[in-house]
Amino acid sequence: MKKLFIAASILLCSFSAQAAQDPEAVFTRSCGACHNGQLPMAPKKGDAAAWEPRLKQGMPTLVKHVTEGFNAMPPRGICMDCTAEDYQAVIEWMSK
Questions:
Q1: What is the value of pTM for the model shown?
Q2: 72 and 42 in contact (C-beta within 8 Å)?
Q3: Domains of the chain
Q4: What's the rounded Cα separation, in Å, for the pair 12 and 44?
Q5: Nearest to 66 by CA among 55, 78, 49
Q6: Closest C-alpha to 21, from 31, 12, 13
């Protein structure tokens, strides 16, 4: 029984490290309002030059900026049900 519990715990932990939501869906629902060009300081999806200096800060910093809010970005980037993994997936998707 103990081995089964440990195996189940490991399996659940491995699932929790992945984004639960589709990055494109999150972008459309929450991020696109600013990152489609309506807000000049928000880097547009696919704008490699705009994303490069941000990505150099490291993913933990970018996820922190989204979670806490940064400059004109509101806390949680208007995605109240996103996890850190969801934010990372959306950042990676937008920066490509």
A1: 0.78
A2: yes
A3: 20-94 (1.10.760.10)
A4: 35
A5: 78
A6: 31
Output helix, strand, coil percentages for the chain, rounded to the nearest 5: 65, 0, 35
Listed residue (90, 96, 92) closest to 25, CA to CA: 90
Nearest Cα neighbor of 79 from 15, 40, 22, 41 is: 22
Longest dimension (CA), the chain: 57
Residues 6+ apart with CB under 8 A from 51: 43, 94, 95
Adjacent-strand bridge partners of 39: none
- What does the pLDDT look like over 40-89, one tens digit per residue? 899 999 999 999 999 999 999 999 999 999 999 999 999 999 999 999 99
Tokens 């970005």 correspond to 73
